[in-house]
Write a structure and sequence with these properties.
Belongs to the ABC transporter superfamily. Helix content is about 35%, strand content about 25%. The chain has helices at about 50-55, 80-85, 100-110, 115-130, 145-155, 175-185, 200, 220-240, and strands spanning about 1-15, 20-35, 40-45, 65-70, 70-75, 85-90, 165, 190-195, 205-210, 215-220. The strands form 2 sheets. The chain has a 6-stranded mixed β-sheet with strand order 6-7-8-3-9-10, sandwiched between helices. A 4-stranded antiparallel β-sheet has the order 2-1-4-5. It binds adenosine-5'-diphosphate and magnesium ion.
Length: about 250
């Protein structure tokens, strides 16, 4: 169970007018229990989706309140939480660190497979599961964007997390690769929390959170949540067209 209790996230931000730094709220106080197998998070750019996603594995810590995963506190037990919660970024290049796929997945396996030869073998098995067996020794930069996203997913899933948090994992992909990643994620046994701009993908979730201006403004079944988000965005678009502040 993922639990957010009265979580408030603030940050220091430079004053655009050149004055002293000021405190800005990234996420207003929020309490949530997430135990559905598939949770989607949707919302406008800059609304706070990544902040919410990053709270779940301690990449962002609450300024007040607390986040726990299976009872482990992200602030106190960060390393243990990160073993439970895998995180995949939008841009796979942000998390692929090794020159070849087999080395990158092997890096994830160093804790569970201390023997180097066994580790490389296990890494190849993981890559095969993700359709990347033939690419195992190819330089990472020669892979397509879609293949790199699969590799990033493979490297995270190799650690066998209980929960997978995905922050817009398909935003940079074309439709074909998006379908490949969506299918793969759909077949996972892990609990998945996915930030997405793909409203069709959100439509398949068990629960959808709509984030706006640092608040969860709707929380419920996909159809209603997507409708709420569309209405919100249509209203904002007409304010932008009218030239009024958004
Ligand atoms: N560390 C930070 N310091 C100051 N402002 C931040 C920080 N992280 C994010 N923000 C701001 O907080 C808002 C929400 O960011 P984010 O959670 O990344 O939104 P989203 O993922 O929905 O685009 C944005 O306006 C962003 O610029
Ligand atoms: Mg984001």
């Amino acid at each position: 169970m993922i639990a957010l209790d009265a979580v408030h996230v603030t940050a220091w931000s430079p004053d655009p007018a050149g004055g002293a730094d000021r405190v800005v709220t990234l996420l207003h106080p929020l309490s949530l229990r997430l135990d559905e197998p598939r949770v989607a998070v949707i919302g406008a750019n800059g609304s706070g989706k990544s902040t919410l996603a990053r709270l779940l594995n301690g990449l962002v810590l609450p300024s007040s309140g607390r986040v726990t995963v299976d009872g482990l506190d992200t602030a106190r037990d960060g390393a243990a939480v990160r073993r439970l919660v895998g995180f995949v970024f939008t841009d796979p290049d942000a998390q692929i660190v090794m020159p070849t796929p087999v080395e990158d997945v092997a890096l994830s396996l160093r804790r569970t497979h201390p023997d180097a030869r066994e580790r490389a073998q296990a890494a190849r098995a993981v890559l095969a599961r993700f359709g990347l067996a033939a690419r195992a020794d190819q330089p990472v930069h020669s892979l397509s964007g879609g293949q790199r996203q699969l590799l990033a997913l493979a490297a995270v899933l190799a650690t066998e997390p209980r929960v997978l948090v995905l922050d817009e994992p398909t935003t940079l992909l074309d439709l074909a690769w998006r379908a490949v990643v969506d299918d793969l994620v759909a077949g996972l046994e892990q609990q998945v929390v996915e930030v997405t701009h793909d409203l069709d993908a959100a439509g398949h979730a068990d629960r959808v959170l709509v984030v706006d201006e640092g608040r969860v403004v709707h929380d419920g079944a996909p159809d209603e949540a997507v409708r709420h988000y569309r209405t919100l965005m249509a209203a904002r678009a007409s304010r932008v067209r009218d030239g009024s502040p958004s």
